[in-house]
Amino acid sequence: MGKAVEDFAAGRRRVGIGRPGKELFGAGGVTKRELAEHYRRVAPVMLPHVRGRPLALHRFPDGIDPGASGTPGFFQKNLPEYTPEWVRGVRVERMHGDPITMPVCDDTATLLWLADQAAITLHPWTTRAAALRRPDRMVIDLDPPGRDFAAARRAARDVREVLAEVALAGYVMTTGSRGLHVVVPLRPEEDIDAVRDLARGIADTAARRHPDRLTTEVRKNRRGGRLFLDTMRNSYAQHSVAPYAVRALPGAPVATPLSWSELERAGSAQVWAVRSLPRRLAELADRGDPWHALGRHARSPRRAGERLARLAGAGGAGRG
Fold first, then answer.
1. Which of 57, 102, 190, 291 is the most buried (most CB within 10 A)?
2. pLDDT by residue, tens only, the chain of 320 residues
C-alpha cells in the first residue's frame, strides 16, 4: 500500500497530498500525485494568469468516472471551512443569493492544496479580486460543431483579424476539450457589462463576415452546423478554463497556450496532456512562453469599442 499522505515542497511550505496513488482518470490513468506534480511544474507559466482572481473549482474526489458508489464531479465556488489560513479568498457578491468567499490562487502552495482537493480544473474570472467589475481579460470561446478542429483554427484567425482592426491583441489557447479560446488582454478601465458588449460586437462582426461558417446564435438548433462564437464568459461571475488547467476527460488533456504559428500545426484541442506536457515545457524553456508578454499588450476597451463602431459604420462589419 502506498503512502496515505505525501509531502510536496512549494517554496517555504510543504503541502500534504492525501491518497497520492489514487487514479483520478481511470485504471492506469493520471494519479493524484501526477496531478499535483503537474500543477507544481506549470506554476511559473500558469500563476500569472490565475493570480489574484476568484476561482471556480471543478472537483472530482473519486475521479472522473467514480462509478455508482463514488462522488461525481461538481463545481465548488466557496472556500470550505477547513481551508488553510495561508490560502487567500475574496468575498464576492452574487446575482442571486448571499455573498460568498471564493478561493484565490496566488502561489504554488495553493495550487498544490487545490490538487489535494482533487480540483482537476481551475476556472478563473476575467476580473481580479481588487476590481471585480473591471475586467483585464476578454475571452471568446470558439465552440466547433462536433470535432471539427480545423473550423476552430479558421475561426480563431477570423476573430484575430477583427481584433487587429480595433487595435486589440489576441492570444490563442487550446481548451483541452474540443475548441479554442482567444484571450484578449485589456486595461481594466471599463465595467464588465461594457466589455461583454465589446466581445459580442467583435464576435458579431466576425460572424457577419462569414455567415456560412460562424454564428453567435445561442440556441443550438438554430446554428445550422456553424461554429459558435461564445462570448457569455465575459459576464459578471462567469469564468473560463485557466491556461495549463487539466480537463476532466480521458487522458487528462491540458488547456495549452500556443503561438499563432503553432496553431496551424495543432491537430486537436487535446494535443497536450499531463503526461506529455513536460516535453512542451522543455521546449518553452528554449524558445520562451508564447504568452509571456500578454500583460504588456493590454489595450483600451473603450477605444476598441469606438473603433468597432466606426468599422461598422464604414461597412467593415459586413465584409466577406
1. 102
2. 467 999 999 999 999 999 999 999 999 999 999 999 999 999 999 999 999 999 999 999 999 999 888 899 999 999 999 999 999 999 999 988 899 999 999 999 999 999 999 999 999 999 999 999 999 999 999 999 988 999 999 999 999 999 999 999 999 999 999 999 999 999 999 999 999 999 999 999 999 999 999 999 999 999 999 999 999 999 999 999 999 999 999 999 999 999 999 999 999 999 999 999 999 999 999 899 999 999 999 999 999 999 999 998 876 554 33
What is the Cα–Cα distance from 143 to 163, expressed in whole angstroms?
A: 18
Q: How many beta carbons lie within 10 A of that of residue 63, not counting itself?
A: 24
CA distance 144 to 228: 6
- With residue 204 as reference, give the H or E element that holds it: helix 192-209
Reduced to 3 states (helix: H, G, I; strand: E, B; else coil), residue 316 is helix
